[in-house]
Structures are given as structure tokens and as C-alpha cells.
Amino acid sequence: MMKKIKMIRLELDRSIYSDEAVQKAAYRFIDRFAAIVSRADNSIVVEITFGTESSNQREHVVADFKKELLDQNLRLRIKTETEAVRNLILAYAFSKSGLQE
Amino acid sequence: MTEKFLPVQDYLPDSGTYELLPFKFEPVGADEVILTNLTGEFLYLKREKLDSLVSHRLAPSDADYRALRARHFIRQPNDRATLDLLALKTRTRLSRLANFTNLHLFVVTLRCDHACHYCQVSRQSEDRQSFDMSEETADRALDLVFRSPNPAIKIEFQGGEPLLNFPLVRYVVEKAEQRNRVERRDLQFVVATTLSMVTDEILEFCRVHGIHISTSLDGPEDLHNRNRPRPGRDSHRKFTDGLKKARDVLGYDAVSAVMTTSPASLPRAREIVDEYIEHGFDSIFLRPLSPYGFAIKTKSYQAYDAGSWLEFYRAGMDYIIDLNKRGVRFVEHYSSVILKKMLTNDDPMFVDLMSPCGAGISAVVFNYDGDVYASDESRMLNEMGDATFKLGNVHSDSYRDIFASDALLSVLEDSFASSAPMCSDCAFEPWCGADPVFHHATQGDILGRKPESEFCKRMMGMIRYLLDVMRADPQAKSIFMTWVNS
Question: What pTM was computed for the model?
């Protein structure tokens, strides 16, 4: 008998979620499910395929994934806002090391 | 005239405007996160505060505002020293990298009198001298050792059982000392031995030349003998006799011990710690098995996963903390490496917990046949037929060939955890490291898929444990502070 594939589809608003945040969140979950990320109009679509998990386990993992999506969005905001100063600090940290040519 | 005081505007109430500085966060529990900055400083924050912080709505009067500012997570427009301090701390953490290779491992023989199931080298029987390093190979290796710019050079003799080729150990020590009269480095020697074959003559040589002993103790007698079979099944007795002799001649502090966690060790963490204390050691390294050499061939490595090892680790640590509270000073080294990164601006440059990884740039291995490897684990892989991390051979390659080889540079480039998938946004990354040889061996990928990585699970587990303990138990945190500042 063919195993029933357990698939869940999430449609995320592109004005809220960035491609990068969604991909990073999906990567963090590759030990729990397989995901395909694609675009459709104004959405980012995540198709999640589970293995042998029970329905309860699947719900729990998807709930965690939704939280992770928000966290990744926030991480990206912090990264974008602090990128210039991060580069400045690193440049300054190495400026007296004698390592640069 | 020089101004003694800052201008009056510096003392006006804060305007409430601030700039975010680079930081990462990770959830801890349902409604809290932990924040870490570039240099590994950290603090806890409620979820709603994180949102306020990132949205620039956190008020200067907020209790967390001052801590965020003090630990360089935010800065106000008039904060002049913040970037300087962050840069200084970053440079301090990375300063040892510029020194390049410190630890030079000489595999003076593959022969061994033990037949440990998990041994990381493919040992040969005791009588096959074709597995011994020659003087010519040692000379070439020493040429490379002294090419390292590091003012401190440590030469560690490994095997097999290095005492089976002690004439070569003697040769290398004397030659290195001779060269060092001109080089004037801080030169140290260590012999990694089971002590089963130690003699008065060997110990006298070690005493005269200030050679330290790193030996192996896996736990109580039955466990040690089970892990370390040898003819006569007397490994523990030989260790005990050898330890006493070595301490009598070299002094107490010149002998340290390491243990390996076999599947049989898992339920016996407390007994193992007790065994170390009984033998007068003041520290232990709760070391998990590595997926190389005989550990793979005998399936020892597959016998337990990161979760089982973490249970063992936590049981051992709980007990060690309790002992410290009762006045017995006893350190766990694996935790100590991580804690040093958490609680100080120093990075101990432990090879497996560095970013970039310590392969080649912190330690390098000269095999008995002159092959050069990026790490001890790389040598094991080669014994299994995988030459990915072989950097060259002392007889055919120059210093530049070896240390600027693609085999080394590509590993270093790929092992910056701060740019690796998942690690790049992980708040624990400043305390962690990269282990490309481990990930290559287990996943066929130097970077490694971290969500499925046993290394990542182990590190996350240890870090979360240490954080939880420090938060719940101020006395334990004080104990950890003494570990990292000694």
C-alpha cells in the first residue's frame, strides 16, 4: 500500500515575510520536515512534507516553524540595521593587527 | 588647559534615541530570548522587550535599557567609546590567531600494546618497526615546526604508544632544544602515554627536559580495563603504578589525564569523576567519542548519540558542581573552554571549538611516515582511506606548499561559523566553533547541515545546560568564574 504523504501548505504575505527569512527558517527545520519554497503572486509558498510523524507532532512542529518565521524576520531587520556598524567594528578590530596588506 | 569634566550636555537626561549594535538572539522558553553580541557578551530579555528594542521603542528608564547599553547591544548618539570597546574586545578574542600554529603533534609510532575498541588510530602490533617515525622524518618535521611564527611551540608525542619508540622522542627533544638555543621560543613537550611501559630511565629523561605526561584514565578499574584491553587485562593496574612513579619523579602537576566516553561509560559519570579524584586529579575532560578510526570500524561511535552523551555530561557536571560546593576544587575542561568564551574576552583556541577551525593554524600533525595532517582526526580519516585533509609530506613539500595548500585554505575558508548556514544567525555562535573534519566524516560536507549535526546538538545541549545552571544557581556561576579566571 502506498504511504499517505502528509503535506502542509503555508502561504505567506511577501509584504511581511522576506524570501531570505523564509528560507533560513526552513533550513533550521530540515531535520524535521522537507520543504519547498516558491513564489505565487504576492505570496511566498512553503510546501511542507512530513515523514511518519503523528498529526499532533506535525501540528507542534508547524507551530514552532511559524514562530521561527517571525524570529527570522526579526533577525533580518537587526542584521540590516546593524550591517554597516558591524563592518566598521570588524575593520577597526583588524586595522592594527598587521594582518592586512 | 585640559578639561577635567565632560561638558554639561553629557549629563542631560537621555533623549531616548539609540542605535542598534550587531547582536543575535535565540529563544529560551516560551516568552524569553537570549541575546549575544559580537564578542559573546549576553543577556536575557522578555519577548515583548525584544520587539520594543528592535522597534526603537525601549525607554531609557526601562530596567533593561542600561544593561543593553552597558553590554554594547545599543549605543546612544553621545556614546563615544562603544565602537572602540567592541573592536578592542573583538581583536582580543582573535589575537591568538595571528600567532599561527602552536601545537605540533609527532606520531612517533603507530605501534601500541593496547587494543582499544574506540582507538582513533589504526594501531599495529608492537613488533612492526615499519610503523615508526625515522630520524630523517623527524628532522624534516622539526624544520617545519620552527617555521611557525608562534613564540610558543608545544611538541606533543603521540602514537600508538610513543614510549615504544622512545629513542626517537629523545632525539626530537634534544634536537628541538638545540635549535631553540637560537630560536628562543617558549618550548614545551608533552608525551601522550598510557604509562603502561614507563621506566625510571624514561621518567628521568622527562624530568631533566621538563616533559609533561598526558595519560588516559577512563574510570574505575573494570571500566578502564574493558575500554582499554591489553594482554594480561591489567591496563588499570599499569596505569596506577605508572602514575605513582611519574608523580614521584616529575611532580604532581606534570601529569594530567584524559578520558574517552565509551558506551559502557554512559551510566557511570559519577564513578568516573570519583576515580579521578581518588587518583588526585583536579580536573577531567568529559570527551565524547569521535567518528574516526576504530570507533567506526567497531561501531562504538554509533552506539550512542548526542542526546545520550548529553545525559552523561549533565550527570557528570551536576556532580562536579556539587563537589565544588563542598570544597573540592575540580574542573571540567570541555565546559571550561565554552565558559571562557561566555564569561571573558579570551578564546582558548581549542582546535575543535574555533572559528575558523583550528586545523593547521592552531595544531598540525606529523605522521610517522612524514605525512602532514590538519588535525589528529584528519590522520584518522586518512587511515580510513580518505585523504581530504592531508596537507602534504615533510619529504616532498615545503612549508609554503603545506600551509598554503588548497586542502588547508579551503577548509579554513569554509569553517568560519559566522558565515555558515544556520550558524550565521545562531546566538550561540560566538561560543561555538566549526569542526569541518567531523562534518566531512559524518555528512560528507565540510560545512555540515547543522540541523542534523550531532556536533551542533552536542554544543547546543552543553551551552543551554551551562546557561541554565548559571541562571538558576549563582553559586555555580561563581564556581565557573574561578574556572575561567585561573
Answer: 0.90
